[in-house]
Amino acid sequence: MKRAFLLIVVALFVLLAVLLFNTFNVSAPDDTATPLPVFESGLNEADMSARLSQALQFPTLPHQPQSFAAFHDFLRDAFPLTDQNLALKKFGNSLLYHWDSGNDCAPTLLLAHQDVVPVSSPDQWQHPPFAGVVDEHFVWGRGAMDDKGSLMAILEATEALLAEGRAPTCDVWLAFGHDEEIGGNEGANRMAAWMAEQGLRFALVLDEGGMMLPGDTLGIEQPVALIGIAEKGYMTVTLQAHAEPGHSSRPPSKTAVGDLAKAITALQNSPRPAGLSEPTRKMLKQVAPYQPFAKRIVFANLWLFEPLIVKQLSGKPETNALVRTTMSPTLLRAGVKDNVLPATAEATINFRLAPGETRDTVLAYLEEQLPDSITVTPQDTFLSDPSLTSNIPSPAFNRLAGLARSLPEKPVVAPFLLIAGTDARHYQVVSDQIFRFMPVALNQDDLSRFHGHNERLSREQYPQMVRFYAGVMLAAE
């Protein structure tokens, strides 16, 4: 007994020593800031806001080509130096600009998309969604945050650099897709395929996705700039249940609607396994030095505390999506009249696939969880496996991180897993250094504005976005 007790004491001592060693050896990453470009002529915020306002007045929905033609005319007039000095190639309504530096080095690719999502309840907006209202603090309108704000800031940066006779060290390409919101197959996918055919290979690809958020999002005091190094996959399936139709006054024990409801309940009660993906692991390690001591011990020793962290993250919808493949019933269809039992009931289920998951593993999960009476049909209009994970640290990531740290908020920079989808995944054929970050500071309550009501962009932050994108162009490896 005494020997066993001593062994336990020694084991605990060794464990404590390992925990403390790892904790005290956690060091803050290089916090060197890369100065944002200063323009001798300055940036006229009022003029830039006015141009953004005009851009938001074009309802560039993916299935309205006439709006894109007018929007392209506007861009040509708003940015004449860009139109004169950059080569432009069109892929349908998508725009691909090339800024030739004259130097032989790996180019940079900046992405944004022109299209916006529809507005379902315009009466619930503070200002009309396509009016582009500019008030004292914000520019309001559908697309301000997703993603015309980035598109316009990139073009403002290009125009300002050209006006001052400044050029990037390496070539810069600008790819503005027109159908990101419905998968990007006709825009980003075609542009990426063409680039691959030309043999282009990019040192850095930057798209929308991450942003600056309050530090308490990750339990720290300083604001945090989240740069996406991967994104989840996307898959939608239709579940269909069948039964004999009939009169609602004589319902059988099994109905199509009832069987479908049981199927959805079964999936919700048996979610996909949770775990820390590589991007989430790297995020926690990156912010560990800024945590209170007790949390620092946990974050610095994921080998031991991963189950605890996963359980905590699983408890909230906003963080549960970071640790597992999620499923969301989004559409239900059944019946034609209140007193008629339908022969068929259907549900549309949207899955967001975590790294390590594939479409095949999700289909196998559905086959296991659902009875043979439920038919599963994958939709093939918008499918993608999880993206590859960009390897960090790297010169490309360091370039973005340094610029992010020089923003007025002076944020802590951390990689993360983007739970939504972007055009960036199409460009894996031309780069392994793909990142997702929009240089704008938001609060948690701003996140509902993406695809929601009252989308807006801060006038104060807009010039900083322009300087950031200019910095990305100038600060080549």
Structure, described:
This protein is an alpha/beta fold and 477 residues long. The protein has two domains: 45-231 and 387-474, 3-Layer(aba) Sandwich (Aminopeptidase), CATH 3.40.630; 233-378, Alpha-Beta Plaits (2-Layer Sandwich), CATH 3.30.70.360. 35% of the residues lie in helices and 21% in strands. The protein contains 14 helices and 16 strands. It has helices spanning 2-24, 45-56, 65-78, 80-85, 148-163, 188-197, 256-269, 278-287, 293-300, 302-314, 317-323, 359-369, 395-405, 462-474; strands at residues 87-91, 94-99, 108-113, 138-140, 172-177, 204-213, 224-231, 233-242, 246-247, 326-334, 340-341, 344-353, 374-378, 412-418, 434-441, 456-458. The strands form four sheets. Strands 1, 2, 3, 5, 6, 7, 14 and 15 form an eight-stranded mixed sheet that branches. Helix 1 (2-24) packs across helix 9 and helix 2 (45-56) crosses helix 5 (148-163). The longest helix is centred in the first third of the chain and has 23 residues, at 2-24. The mean pLDDT is 93.
What's the helix and strand layout?
Layout lengths: L1 H23 L20 H12 L8 H14 L1 H6 L1 E5 L2 E6 L8 E6 L24 E3 L7 H16 L8 E6 L10 H10 L6 E10 L10 E8 L1 E10 L3 E2 L8 H14 L8 H10 L5 H8 L1 H13 L2 H7 L2 E9 L5 E2 L2 E10 L5 H11 L4 E5 L16 H11 L6 E7 L15 E8 L14 E3 L3 H13 L3
Helix pairs in contact: 1-9, 2-5, 5-14
